[in-house]
Request: fold
Amino acid sequence: SGPWLKDFCGITPCASAGASAPAPTGSMAESGPLRIGFIGGGMMAEALLGGLLKAGTARADTVLVSEPFEKRRQYMADTFSVGVTEDNLKVCSECSVVVLAVKPQVLDKMLADLKERSKAWPLFVSIIAGKTLAQIGQYMPEGTRIARVMPNTPCLKGCGASAYVLNSSCTAEDGATVEAVMGACGIIERVAEEKLLDAVTGLSGSGPAYVYLMIEAMSDGGVRMGLPRATATRLAAQTVMGAGLMALEGNKHTGELKDAVTSPGGTTIAGVHALEQGGFRGTVMNAVEAAVKRSQELGKL
Reply:
């Protein structure tokens, strides 16, 4: 990765196409870096933490990570110089914002334990797939502030695309805090209703897999036409990244961007025609719809 990757991941369109990402206000701004905790120290927590420290949203001495596995706790402490513990209660007691980053299957047990023992209920930011605000809130006192976020795996490279929703107890300042936290590893958009997170799941949550298939198929095409595999894959991946950057940074519709590459009677229109003959556009739309429906089904289990 070179400077181009830093520039790509550091773009600011997180303030476009919907809710902007306002600067944190109120007590968060006045008190300096966030006192932020993580319950769960896995890969997504690591990605968020790295982004927060790099952005200056948090300082290492204001972060506390709870993680049950000693080896992982030591890794987080050694890598980021943050505080670590195996006690979730300590995180809730000492932090003003707590990111819930455990596996879905252990969430209920973890929250039930907090319900029995905790007297402190900070702002909770859940990045746990498939767990609703109601499912989390049932273990917490009325009035507890909860945000639910749907991130995606490119957060691990600082290029994530996330969306969030707030429960009715959250304030505008809480929204700004969520955007500061998630904006440290990509773009963040607020959606009006929690049910729309299923659509986010089908689009950006599952979307990296669709894009990997596209890159792989483009690479296969290059190989078929004589290019070495490594060269074909690098060209395909960079093409996708560059096209994404142009779509995010500019004010042009993607159709207009496509037309700018498509000369009359040229090579690109021949390729586009082949894609249309294969039902490319409809197939991608169907993929998003199928993933959304499956997300809805899983939410009912």
Remarks:
- Confidence is low (pLDDT under 50) at residues 1-6, 10-30.
- DSSP finds 14 helices and eight strands in the chain.
- The beta strands are 34-39, 58-66, 83-85, 97-100, 123-126, 146-150, 160-166, 186-190.
- The longest strand covers residues 58-66.
